[in-house]
């Protein structure tokens, strides 16, 4: 047995061994720490901050994310040295290498000077850390090296001093070079700069120190011609210095403005991380092809050819030069008054034929771009692109956008591209004959965009992910295309598209309509127009279906297809003459729920046939004016209506009963009905608007009705007890019965209460503070009936209840008996924005409390009423000839009630007289909606 005195203890080691063990442990820790600091850090594009052309270099900062994070998402299964998709940087203490990973390609770029700085700094840190950990007395070792007596100088300390002497000038030069390059790029005004900072405290460091962590990776546009007089005028007379592209190792995206005739940009193509290249205003195909040939690893390529003079301004700059790159806008006019797109300077030497002939002298060769993912061609002629070659040599293409200069060719056949997701086709000229487009065997294609001004013969087959095909609102290369959503189709075949949800087309005559194996198709929209010629000859709403022959024959394939059993649940017909269409044939559409008829002419029998379809719930025909009997026939044909939108505005008697699912009928249209009877409509969410008073009003079990607006009297026998979710109640010149008040007490969501020229019970004012959402009150010329039967005008004692409304924002007290006491009470409302006191007998000084309001934006007074000087800019004065009955702050219409716009048509806003001169120092000019001063504007609401 071993005695305790002979057990091994750490103290039994000699001093030398203990120092070696300590140095090894510290060295291992430092190796892991330095390796972690050298690991690549992924730059999250979702949090990047881009510089605008007029921003400053020190205006923003950006934080790196570790390689284990990407876009804010933590990936715990990633190793320390794993490379994430996108752009990563690495190195310590400064960034010395960049890695860009896109798909299967990973590219690396090194900065030699930065790498030297890092190696020297890491050597000093590693060797110095181990050395001072090993030695027993670091202070004595340093002192001995500086002033040796009997001991030798430390060679390690001398080596560290020499290494530090080399590091300081190299690092200083590196920081200065980075600062100079960043400033030059900023001064060129075409650089898209991203600033990357490792730690938040670096934002407080000087710019020259941060420059080593600032990387220019994107030049949005760069002018190829530096000595152009036009370019100098666009840059406001400043001479732009050329950029040395070799000095930016992180450069990944470059956009060049042509022409590219005499300038050598081969250095751009040699950038190791370059993956996106854009050309603007290219005139010579061969000059752009030289640059493309040197960049075989491009991921995105955009080519925008120069346009003819008819597409350019008087300074011979096309629309791509107008992207705010050099400071002009679309509304720019020349000094002689000519507009930006004025073509008066066009000469015969620059005709369309001469310009297009220059395009035909070359062809783009993209066969070496095997990794190309996005290809966009703007104003590129058909002769310059071999479509079959692109399909064969670009298997990774995901987005293809081509605007053809001139007319489209006879046919486009695209097939066998396994990754293609988006396809866009357009042209600058309209072809008179239909263009045949065949898309087959594209398993990932989900979007197809076609031009609105061309007629197509479409064949879509084996497209499992296609969800819709439509005309693009704005093509990415063509700023002159119009806005529309439906392509013009002459013939259509769709097979094996299980993800297709909607088909929206415009046509004049269908020669073929075949849709098979589209199990997800739910929406169909067909619009009838004449064949397009050009955008200039097409006018919105120029088509009249009554002037056209019936579509029974011209769209016969469509009607035959609908007569079969289909899964469509929404059908929209626009500008079609459908009088000869037999809707009873559509009984085989078991899921058809919604029918839209816009600009069509149909009979009541056809609408009845639509109403009797098995699943019909919604009919949208807002322009159909039907008689009362026709409306009753539609209601009787279907008791499950959810939406029945027809033209109700001309009906004198509106009667809807027993429609438990009806949500919308009248909408927000003004009615002229004398009698309105709504019973058992628990889901109706409409607003009732009438132009005049009504004789009969019966609202029973209409719990979701949103608003009642009656511009006149309501009968004393009116029954409104069936409303509980009412938000707006407005009537005029009526006697408000206690029964009406009991109904309104149940409306907890009441927001607007307008009772101009009405007689109300006094108990109404006890209810005002209980409506938590009430914000708009109109009590002009209000008369109050007391319990003893006396009728008195609204006075100060009643305003006390108004002032207790929490959210009161607009109030009208015209021609009431209020005094300055009421103004004092209302001025305490925190959210009061508008008040009208026309016709009130107020004395000078009664309106002074309103000057302290911070949110008041409108004050309606009579012409001679005295208003405090502080709020003169928000005053609306009534004219001497104003109709007293027409001076309500709130117009009884949809726009004024819900937008909050006062009615006064001939109002005059008082402004500061010019004779008073400029405002005092420290006070900004007062506008129509400003407050007393800048400090008052920003002051919080008490």
From TrEMBL:
Positions of transmembrane segments: 20-39, 113-135, 156-175
Phylogenetic lineage: Bacteria, Pseudomonadati, Planctomycetota, Planctomycetia, Pirellulales
Cited InterPro entries: LRR_dom_sf
Chain positions covered by the region annotation Disordered: 908-942
Organism: Rhodopirellula sallentina SM41
Keywords: Membrane, Transmembrane, Transmembrane helix
Claim: Glycosyltransferase is one of the keywords in the record: no
GO cellular component annotations of the record: SCF ubiquitin ligase complex
Record-level GO BP terms: SCF-dependent proteasomal ubiquitin-dependent protein catabolic process
Organism superkingdom: Bacteria
Entry annotated with the keyword Transmembrane: yes
Annotated protein name in UniProt: Adenylate cyclase regulatory protein
């Amino acid at each position: 047995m071993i005695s305790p005195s002979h057990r091994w203890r750490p103290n039994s080691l000699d001093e030398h061994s203990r120092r070696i063990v300590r140095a090894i442990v510290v060295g291992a820790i430092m190796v892991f720490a330095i390796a972690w600091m050298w690991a690549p850090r992924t730059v999250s594009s979702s949090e990047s901050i881009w510089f605008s052309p007029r921003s400053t270099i020190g205006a923003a900062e950006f934080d790196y994310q570790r390689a284990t994070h990407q876009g804010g998402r933590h990936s715990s299964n990633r190793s320390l040295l794993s490379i994430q998709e996108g752009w990563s940087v690495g190195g310590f203490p400064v960034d010395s290498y960049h890695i860009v990973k896109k798909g299967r390609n990973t590219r690396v770029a090194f900065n030699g000077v930065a790498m030297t700085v890092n190696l020297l700094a890491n050597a000093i840190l590693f060797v110095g850390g181990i050395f001072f950990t090993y030695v027993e007395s670091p202070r004595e070792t340093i002192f001995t090296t500086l002033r040796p007596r009997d001991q030798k100088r430390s060679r390690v300390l001398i080596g560290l001093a020499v290494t530090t002497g080399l590091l300081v000038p190299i690092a200083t030069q590196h920081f200065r070079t980075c600062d100079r390059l960043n400033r030059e790029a900023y001064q060129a005004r075409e650089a898209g700069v991203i600033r990357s900072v490792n730690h938040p405290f670096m934002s407080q460091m000087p710019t020259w120190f941060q420059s080593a962590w600032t990387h220019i990776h994107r030049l949005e546009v760069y002018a190829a011609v530096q000595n152009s007089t036009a370019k100098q005028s666009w840059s406001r007379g400043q001479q732009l210095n050329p950029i040395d592209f070799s000095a930016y190792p992180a450069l990944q995206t470059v956009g060049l403005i042509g022409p590219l005739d005499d300038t050598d940009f081969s250095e751009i193509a040699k950038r190791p991380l370059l993956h996106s290249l854009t050309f603007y205003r290219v005139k010579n195909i061969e000059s752009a092809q030289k640059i493309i040939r040197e960049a075989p690893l491009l991921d995105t390529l955009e080519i925008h050819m120069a346009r003819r003079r008819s597409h350019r301004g008087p300074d011979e700059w096309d629309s791509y030069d107008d992207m705010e790159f050099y400071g002009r806008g679309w509304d720019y006019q020349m000094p002689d008054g000519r507009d930006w797109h004025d073509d008066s300077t066009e000469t015969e030497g620059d005709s369309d034929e001469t310009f297009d002939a220059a395009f035909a002298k070359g062809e783009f060769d993209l066969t070496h771009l095997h990794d190309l993912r996005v290809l966009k061609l703007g104003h590129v002629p058909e002769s310059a692109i071999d479509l079959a070659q692109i399909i064969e040599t670009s298997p990774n293409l995901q987005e293809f956008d081509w605007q053809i200069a001139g007319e489209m060719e006879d046919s486009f056949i695209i097939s066998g591209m396994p990754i293609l997701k988006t396809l866009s086709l357009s042209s600058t000229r309209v072809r008179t004959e239909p263009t045949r487009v065949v898309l087959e065997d594209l398993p990932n294609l989900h979007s197809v965009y076609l031009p609105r001004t061309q007629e197509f013969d479409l064949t879509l087959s084996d497209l499992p992910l296609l969800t819709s095909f439509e005309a693009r609102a704005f093509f990415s290369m063509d700023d002159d295309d119009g806005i529309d959503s439906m392509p013009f189709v002459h013939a259509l075949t769709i097979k094996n598209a299980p993800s297709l949800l909607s088909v929206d087309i415009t046509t004049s005559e269908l020669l073929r309509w075949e849709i098979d194996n589209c199990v997800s198709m739910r929406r169909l929209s067909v619009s009838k127009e004449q064949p397009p010629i050009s955008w200039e000859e097409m006018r919105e709403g120029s088509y009249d279906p009554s002037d056209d022959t019936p579509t029974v024959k011209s769209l016969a394939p469509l009607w035959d297809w609908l007569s079969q059993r289909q899964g469509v649940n929404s059908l929209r017909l626009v500008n079609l003459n459908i009088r000869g269409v037999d809707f009873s044939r559509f009984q085989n559409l078991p899921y058809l729920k919604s029918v839209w008829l816009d600009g069509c002419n149909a009979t009541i029998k056809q609408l009845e046939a639509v109403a009797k379809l098995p699943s019909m719930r919604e009919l949208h025909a807002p322009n159909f004016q039907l008689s009362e009997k026709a409306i009753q026939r539609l209601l009787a044909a279907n008791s499950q209506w959810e939406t029945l939108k027809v033209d109700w505005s001309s009906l004198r008697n509106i009667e809807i009963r027993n429609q438990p699912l009806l949500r919308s009928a009248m909408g927000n249209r003004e009615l002229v009905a004398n009698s309105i009877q709504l019973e058992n409509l628990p889901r109706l969410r409409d607003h009732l608007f009438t132009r005049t008073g009504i004789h009969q009003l019966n609202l029973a079990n209409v719990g979701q009705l949103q608003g009642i607006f009656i511009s006149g009297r309501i009968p004393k026998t009116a029954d409104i007890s069936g409303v509980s979710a009412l938000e707006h109640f407005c009537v005029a010149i009526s006697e408000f019965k206690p029964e009406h008040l009991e109904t309104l007490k149940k409306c907890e969501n009441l927001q607007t209460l307008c009772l101009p020229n009405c007689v109300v019970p006094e108990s109404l004012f006890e209810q005002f503070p209980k409506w938590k959402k009430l914000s708009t009150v109109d009590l002009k010329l209000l008369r109050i009936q007391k319990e003893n039967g006396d009728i008195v005008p609204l006075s100060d004692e009643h305003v006390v209840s108004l002032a207790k409304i929490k959210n009161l924002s607009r109030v009208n007290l015209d021609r009431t008996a209020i005094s300055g006491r009421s103004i004092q009470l209302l001025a305490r409302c925190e959210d009061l924005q508008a008040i009208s006191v026309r016709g009130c007998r107020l004395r000078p000084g009664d309106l002074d409390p309103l000057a302290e309001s911070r949110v008041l934006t409108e004050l309606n007074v009579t012409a001679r009423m005295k208003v405090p000087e502080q709020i003169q800019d928000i005053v609306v004065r009534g004219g001497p000839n104003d109709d007293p009955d027409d001076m309500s702050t709130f117009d009884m219409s949809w726009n004024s009630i819900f937008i909050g716009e006062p009615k006064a048509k001939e109002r005059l806003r008082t402004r500061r007289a010019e004779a008073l001169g400029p405002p005092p120092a420290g006070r900004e000019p007062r506008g129509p909606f400003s407050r007393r001063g800048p400090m008052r504007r920003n002051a919080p609401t008490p």
